[in-house]
Specification:
Order of helices and strands: HHHHHH
Mean pLDDT: 79
Shape: flat
Number of helices: 6
Low-confidence stretches: none
Length: about 150
């Protein structure tokens, strides 16, 4: 294939194709391999992660706070105030705690009433009768006429 055909197939410019061909001719396959550095290093070390998990699993009243449950906002503010971390966004805290196996109920979960026998949906169809078949008494004896 010529350079213009390669550029058309790879959705790039002909100049870029020529540069790659020249690099390959001079250096072989090495310039073609991507050089991944493994991504961004972790922002928090294992000690900080353990401290965040320990605080999240404890009750706020155990730390002298006037509320009974953590929210991500309150927990993030407390972690910064205690000096565990310098700064942590709420979404980053949620993901970190999820990775550590800690989760908080969502606002929808807190608003939704707990299921009870009265709020359970009823079955529909032939089995939706509120009376059991035995409530009327034993079945009548079967008589056969031959």
């Amino acid at each position: 294939m010529d350079v213009s055909q390669i550029a058309q197939v790879t959705f790039t410019s002909a100049d870029r194709v020529r540069d790659v061909i020249h690099n390959f001719n001079s250096d072989g396959f090495d310039p073609l391999r991507p050089k991944y550095a493994g991504g961004r290093p972790p922002k928090f070390d294992s000690e900080q992660r353990a401290a965040m998990k320990q605080i999240a699993l404890a009750r706020p009243t155990d730390h002298g706070l006037p509320f009974s449950t953590w929210s991500l906002t309150k927990l993030a503010d407390y972690l910064v105030a205690r000096g565990v971390v310098e700064n942590i966004p709420h979404e980053g805290l949620r993901q970190l705690l999820r990775d550590e196996g800690v989760s908080f109920p969502s606002r929808e979960d807190l608003r939704r009433p707990a299921p009870t026998l009265t709020t359970r949906p009823r079955r529909t169809g032939s089995w939706s009768s509120t009376r059991s078949p035995m409530a009327a008494g034993p079945p009548a004896p079967v008589t056969r006429r031959w």
